[in-house]
Design brief:
heterodimer; A: alpha+beta; Lipocalin; 8-stranded antiparallel β-barrel; about 15% helix; about 50% strand; B: about 140 residues; alpha/beta; OB fold (Dihydrolipoamide Acetyltransferase, E2P); about 30% helix; elongated
């Protein structure tokens, strides 16, 4: 009888540990990019970003489909996919990285934490190491990760024809906003 | 002489009109849903997800940018800032189909999990699930 209780305790403990070690997954994160020039402001939104954050190890991952970016103008979206991002050849962009100051973030306690993230960003088939600050907001039923970073199309071999050079910024602002539901 | 002038004026007007409409066409706003478009493929959501699971490359060639109409059971509904994401998934399959609706084309109260619905949207690819964007509810 006692043995049985101990067994149950172990099963329960295993269960409890499993829950705390659970990865946070989001399938509808939001990534927006914004290009500002005196001639034109261009904005596109992607609401189908998949992200996995592991509170135990601090590993963090984002994957998105280039074709899921939505523009205000249809032609812009076509040019973006066909001419600049070549999304038939490179359908996805991704980031795989690490929260470097994990010890400063308490995923069990509500609050705003600043995170230092570094890792590999892959766009248009080119991978670059990046470093970026971010914010992690822990609340009762969810965790939200946000960050703003600057991406240079040039770095990822994205060539912009001279005709439209004036309309597309050399530095594109990328805003990340992902909410993970706690289970 | 008079006739020549008339032709000239008519020609100029015609050219201007063509120019006006082509510029208007080029800068037309992106539509919010594929409601008025005809589906290129009609299938079960689980069948579409299955094809991507088996061979993503092949499925990409076949389905990317195409309007696909799928029928499936609602697994999850999530209300985001400007979109509503509805996941169609069979309980026994690994991946499903995420359908993204603009808020102007769907009211969240129209749907309940477990219900079987038909949706069409543009296929943008496969992550953990197949993604359809600019969706419209068919029934």
């Amino acid at each position: 009888m006692k043995n049985k209780n101990i067994l149950f305790l172990f099963i329960f403990l295993g269960f409890a540990m499993n829950i705390s070690a659970q990865k946070l997954i989001s399938k509808n994160g939001h990534i927006r990019f914004y290009s500002h020039t005196p001639v034109e402001d261009i904005e596109a939104n992607n609401f189908q970003v998949v992200s996995i954050l592991d509170p135990e190890t601090g590993s963090v991952q984002f994957t998105l489909l280039i074709k899921s970016f939505e523009f205000q103008k249809k032609l812009m979206q076509e040019h973006f996919n066909e001419n600049y991002m070549e999304s038939d050849e490179y359908p996805k962009a991704s980031f795989t990285g690490q929260i470097n100051n994990l010890s400063e973030i308490n995923f069990e306690k509500d609050g705003n934490y600043s995170a230092k993230v570094s890792g590999d960003l892959t766009i248009h088939g080119v991978t670059k190491k990046i470093n970026t600050p971010g914010t992690i907001i822990v609340s009762k039923d969810k965790v939200t990760a946000t960050a703003v970073l600057i991406v240079l199309p040039e770095d990822y071999n994205i060539t912009i024809p001279d005709v439209v050079k004036e309309k597309i910024a050399k530095e594109v602002e990328v805003t990340i906003d992902v909410s993970y539901n706690k289970n | 002489m008079n006739k020549k002038l008339q032709f000239l004026v008519l020609g100029v007007v015609l050219i201007l009109a063509i120019l006006f409409f082509s510029v208007k066409w080029a800068f037309r706003p992106a539509s919010k849903s594929v409601e008025k478009e005809k589906a290129d493929f009609t299938m079960e959501a689980s069948a579409l997800a299955g094809e991507f699971e088996i061979d993503e490359q092949k499925a990409n060639v076949m389905y990317l940018d195409k309007v696909i109409q799928v029928k499936g059971i609602i697994d999850n509904i999530s209300d985001e800032k400007t979109v509503i994401s509805v996941t169609l998934k069979d309980p026994e399959s690994l991946s499903g189909v995420i359908c993204s609706f603009d808020k102007s084309s769907l009211t969240i109260t129209q749907l309940t999990p477990g219900e079987k619905i038909t949706v069409k949207g543009i296929c943008t690819g496969y992550l953990l699930d197949v993604v359809l964007s600019k969706c419209a509810l068919v029934e």
